[in-house]
Design a protein that fits this description.
Number of helices: 6
Low-confidence stretches: none
Mean pLDDT: 92
Largest sheet: 8 strands, mixed
Strand content: 15-25%
CATH architecture: 3-Layer(aba) Sandwich
Number of strands: 8
Shape: globular
Number of domains: 1
Structural class: alpha/beta
Oligomer: single chain
Distance between the termini: 29 Å
Strand order of the largest sheet: 1-5-4-3-2-6-7-8
Length: 178
């Protein structure tokens, strides 16, 4: 595992954030509200921040002082850090880490799936705003039940399939008590 940034973030409480690319608008709005609530907690958010919803959440987290762990679906050794991330890395609130060797330079669907498993392995709990039925992330959700980690999703009819398989509903007002 190669990393850039503050390794001490690995000692904090870590929440995996994963979301399908295809995501209903009602869920996106709720997810952003939940992430805003997480900015006020001690949880460090871990994600690849690749899907559109994950990217929106990342923007919210970067605008605050919240710690994040970014896991790209490629190697990070020698990676150029985007300008928007530099202040977060310099201030010790961002860690960029990956299970991939430096020669892995391009993300693929298979690497993204492996990266998502890595994200979950780093986390103490998992928040999936939405996993599209039949999608890759939905398949991974079945595996997550076996981890024993707390599993959260949004209480929305589009997530009934997750709420039926061990995911608990999460709303912004519940976040401070987690």
């Amino acid at each position: 595992m190669m990393s850039q940034g503050d390794q001490s973030l690995m000692k904090t409480r870590r929440l995996a954030l994963l979301c399908s690319r295809a995501c209903p608008g009602s869920i996106i709005v709720q997810a952003l509200d939940v992430v805003r609530a997480f900015r006020e907690t001690a949880w460090t958010v871990v994600s690849g921040f690749q899907s559109p919803t994950e990217q929106e959440c990342f923007g919210i987290l970067l605008r605050g002082e919240h710690p994040v762990i970014v896991c790209p679906a490629h190697g990070v050794e020698g990676m150029r850090i985007p300008a928007a991330w530099k202040s977060a890395v310099a201030s010790g609130r961002m860690l960029i880490t990956s299970p991939f060797e430096k020669n892995v330079r391009r993300a693929t669907a298979a690497l993204a799936q492996e990266r998502n498993r890595f994200v979950v392995s780093l986390a103490n709990a998992v928040f999936i705003p939405h996993a599209a039925p039949g999608g890759t992330l939905h398949g991974m959700c079945r595996e997550l039940r076996e981890t024993g980690k707390a599993l959260w999703t949004l209480d929305d009819p589009a997530n009934d399939h997750l709420l039926k398989v061990a995911f608990r509903p999460l709303t912004p007002d519940l976040v401070p008590d987690l």
